[in-house]
């Protein structure tokens, strides 16, 4: 598979003049642009699957997939950056952040990203009772950024916490470790272009969007439960059975009772809006 965003490991160029034979089985394509377009889509699908596998802890399978497809999950600098954040190696994370600076696009959020990293570093020092180190981060690293001063003041107040429990309660922070660093990484990822690093849980987001669209298209949608990945099948489109659709009145609104909640989505909402609503 050829990459279209420069992340292919072999650096080979995609067929562009209609004479080169694509490697992905589309030998019948005569138009080089069409072949390139499909290659880009294929590469993105592979990256989405790779991210899902990695999130599920199947790193070796992800590596094999990337190797065989000649794709890269993330830009090498971004991959290193993620590893340093997850390892809590803040000095190296900052170094790799500088490498990513040129890839951040017009809305350069380097200061905000640096702030988020230093915030985590500061809180981890506090949890470890390394008060002097925490104070150093606050005075010499966070404050000079001149960014989100209100939050800096709030962070300084956490120094007064007398125990880890009190610190976690006041900060609403998960504490030093995988969970809080994953949350941090999710925030940082939102500032990186998708060509550099995929947004968090991208495949799940897309699948949930697909389910939401199926719900809107469901002609007899009749459930108050949100259709989501944890209660639906992806193997067939969502469709409420016609037999379950209410055909008879089961409840009447009595005078003085609380007004019934309108339907939020689905075709029944249109019907709801057609009915005159009795005033209390
Ligand atoms: Zn339905």
TrEMBL record:
Region named Disordered: 1-39
Bilayer-spanning residue ranges: none
Record key words, sorted: Cytoplasm, Mitochondrion, Repeat, WD repeat
GO cellular component: GID complex; mitochondrion
UniProt xrefs under Pfam families: LisH_TPL (PF17814), TPR1-like_2nd (PF21889)
Domain of life: Eukaryota
Coiled-coil region(s): none
Domain CTLH: 74-133
BP terms from Gene Ontology: proteasome-mediated ubiquitin-dependent protein catabolic process
Protein name per Swiss-Prot or TrEMBL: CTLH domain-containing protein
């Amino acid at each position: 598979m050829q990459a279209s965003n420069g992340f292919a490991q072999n650096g080979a160029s995609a067929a562009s003049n209609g004479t080169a034979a694509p490697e992905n089985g589309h030998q019948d394509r005569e138009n080089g642009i069409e072949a390139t377009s499909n290659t880009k889509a294929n590469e993105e699908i592979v990256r989405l699957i790779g991210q899902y596998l990695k999130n599920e802890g199947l790193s070796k399978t992800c590596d094999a997939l990337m190797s065989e497809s000649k794709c890269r999950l993330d830009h090498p600098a971004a991959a290193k950056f993620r590893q340093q954040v997850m390892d809590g190696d803040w000095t190296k994370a900052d170094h790799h952040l500088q490498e990513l600076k040129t890839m951040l696009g017009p809305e350069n959020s380097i200061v905000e990203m640096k702030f988020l990293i230093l915030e985590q570093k500061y809180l981890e020092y506090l949890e470890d009772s390394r008060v002097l180190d925490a104070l150093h981060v606050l005075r010499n690293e966070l404050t000079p950024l001149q960014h989100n001063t209100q939050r800096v003041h709030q962070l300084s107040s956490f120094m007064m916490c007398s125990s880890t429990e009190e610190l976690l309660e006041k900060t609403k922070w998960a504490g030093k470790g995988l969970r809080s660093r994953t949350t941090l990484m999710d925030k940082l990822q939102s500032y990186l272009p998708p060509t550099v690093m995929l947004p968090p849980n991208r495949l799940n987001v897309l699948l949930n969007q697909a389910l939401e669209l199926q719900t809107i298209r469901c002609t007899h949608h009749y459930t108050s439960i949100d259709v989501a990945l944890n209660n639906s099948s992806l193997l067939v489109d969502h469709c409420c059975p016609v037999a379950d659709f209410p055909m008879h009145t089961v409840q009447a609104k009595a005078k003085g009772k609380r007004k019934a909640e309108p339907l939020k989505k689905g075709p029944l909402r249109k019907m709801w809006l057609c009915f005159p609503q009795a005033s209390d």
